[in-house]
What does this fold into?
Amino acid sequence: MSSMKSADEAPLAVDEKGSGEESRAARGIGDRVLEYTAEYGIVIFLILMCVGFAIWQSGTFPTSRNIKSLLGNQAIPGILALAVVLPLAAGEFDLSIAANLGFCSVASAEFASHGMTPALVIVLTLMIGAAIGLINAAIVVGIGVNAFIATLGMSTILAGGNLLLTNGNTVFEGIGESFTSIATTRVFGIEIVVLYFLIIAIVAWYAMERTPFGRYLRATGMAREAARLAGISTTRRLAGAFIVAGTLSGLCGVLQTAHLGSAAATVGPEFLLPAYAAAFLGATTIRRGMFNVWGTVVGVLVLAVGINGLTLAGAPIWVPDVFNGVALIVAVSAAVLVARHRERAKPKTT
Amino acid sequence: MDATTVATGSAASPEGDRDGFGQIEPAKDIVISGLRKSFGSTEVLGGIDLTIRGGDFVGLMGPNGAGKSTLIKILDGVYDRSSGQIQYGGEAVSKLGERPEVGFIHQDLGLVDELSISDNLRLGEQPMRRIGPFVDRGREREAAVRALANVGLELPVETLIGQLSPGEKTLVAITRVLERGARVIFVDEATSTLPPHDSHRLIEALKQTAARGATVIMVSHKLSEILDATNRVVLLLDGKIVADSPAASLDRSALVEMLVTREKEDVAQEATAKPRPAGGGKELLRLEDVKGGLIDGVDLILKSGEIVGLTGLPGSGLHDVAHLAHGTMKPRGGKVVRAAGCTSALVPPHRETQGGFLEQSTLENLTISSLSRWRSPVRLLRGGSERRDAGEVMDRLSVRPADPGAVFGTLSGGNKQKVVFGRALLSGPSVYVLCEPTRGVDVGTRMEIYKLIEDLASGGAGVLVVTSDSEDLFAICNRIAVVVDGRLGAFIEAEETNPQQLEAFI
Ligand SMILES: Nc1ncnc2c1ncn2[C@@H]1O[C@H](COP(=O)(O)OP(=O)(O)O)[C@@H](O)[C@H]1O
Ligand SMILES: [Mg+2]
It folds into this structure.
């Protein structure tokens, strides 16, 4: 994780006397171009990819149908990627988010098929998601188990739970229109989950960048001891991050069941890697070197557009996995290289 | 330093130069001309012309942020220069760090804690240059012992680096560059973070090394060290050399004159020649037989308007008292009693690891402890008032650069210290627990910090100064006590003692 830290952004660098403007103007054009290219590299890559596919697959890629379905399919992975950002910003991994999604998907399917109202299903499932986050927090923060191990164990337990609930079958009976509509209702022709994704992104961005909560979380992730000595309750911040991540994963679970109208016993694990790939890609842009919300949204879109375009071009079935894996490794490598570069440029002494 | 450089290096420097107690062959002259460096649009070095002759012992001084470290890092090759020339023995070089004859001791010493002294001395060296596949452990050991003795270290070479005191580590680092054939040594603020005893040893070792013929360039803020050890003082101010005098022509007051601007001097006068207010309003904080960490029972009372100083050797548990008083360490026994509504703020002892968030802006570092002050009813941050309040504190402490967006990690040491201080100020507590408040700050800033602490006390705060720098104690404290082996000695009125007496207690 420490490789993700870097000294770069100062988003609040507002120089009221305007001298900052001058100095920025004084800097070489070349430097600035380079800086922006590095800063917005992924965004530029996304745009280039869109343009490229629009030309290459002009009959299928740039159609409104394709774009609507692309967005509709990426909303849930997108929310899950945002869930990952919180623990990552606080300096810990939560590997249980995908299994949490899977468990909550199955649980909500069971609730719905037993005739509960959609509202009740949502409330119960969110509580399950939050409870999983709370247990993670208790193990990691309370006992002090390495988060990687604790949440990996939690994932396996939840996968077992799915088999217990479903006997290995797919749950679909009794899941009615009233329930599926919470994900599939269309607003301006786009599935409502996209709207949820957008709202959650905005709220998460506000929380991370505009509230004390976000500052505390980042401080905890960057230098836990310094944060503690500065009076931040780092254990509470960490616990909060796990609980929010768990709750969002639970939400993804309900939405997944509603979106598909069913829940398979094995749903979940396939969501893990794309969520991390998006978050790490996101950390290379916008607030470079830090896990951030809009960067993660861009990361989600990069993965989605890449896979969608290649699939339309007739790429075989193994391409999406390879693409996700390569993206994750490239993103983390980029972060490591940037950090090392900065390390060298950074004053070593006090 | 990579293996190839070392291999060429040892070829270039015959065994003779590096032989035990013998003389070190004098280094060639280093000529720096027109050296400039900018970070982005800010010029940090504005044309340095400096000739360092073989055998010089240069004291490089200047306020925090003057560019001393930047200069040294350019010479080493950590940074690239923007323009200018560096010559070694008349030959233009791009970085001196490549040459084994030139050694650099940065504050991060580059030693491995988990390895022994002798392994660290060998780090990065080429075992290949020995004949045959076997390392002659015995001879190597002997050489290491002799090399250590040269800097006054008498420790078994098997000792792990992690067990050494900070000063001893620095000595090992110096031994290492000498062993590689260094005839010129750059030492950047090595004594700033050392307790007096260790500093003293280090200075002695550097003097020894210089006496053997080496060239030494030492950055320090400590006047006594500079006067004691160097033969030439170079003063850097805002990236330019403003004075360059033989040390013999200077005394303490002449140095202070050189270092402190008019305005700051007034502050200095005020800080040292003040009638100390008795202090002692209402009681804010009381420790009753508190135990925790290395501390084995401490009693202490801090009253409003009072500045209480604690000192002691490293390992005495000195800083644990600070953490117990502030509440960042849970006491194992005893009682910490706070007056109703009494809050405290801490300036932690280790700025680099505990002080702040290197990647964040100065603003974010300043305000992190008091964000609730700027929270709107819907729990958002009011960015405008946050910036305004932080800006005020930055002005008051004259933090440089004055840009709240500057990345904390790029600030010079003294400015980092000011920011950590500013964070405590912003949170407006009734008790300040200040660990090593003047560690690594320049003379002018030191005076400013003293003035500030006195203002805090006269404003009704209680201040606990926990420091290994006895100058802090005599400049500002009302009462002083020494921590020895986890226990606190009796308090002495500052006016009734002197540094020599105090040293005897430690
Ligand atoms: N990597 C960097 N990026 C931007 N500014 C820097 C960097 N390193 C140092 N500076 C700035 O250069 C100035 C000189 O710093 P430094 O050489 O560390 O001072 P000194 O060692 O004399 O206290 C300071 O204002 C500092 O903020
Ligand atoms: Mg410095």
Notes: Chain A touches chain B through 46 residues (CB under 8 Å). Residues 101 and 169 of chain A are 17 Å apart (CA to CA). The pocket of adenosine-5'-diphosphate (ligand 1) is lined by residues A 345-347; B 39, 44, 62, 64-70, 400-401, 410-413 (CB under 6 Å).
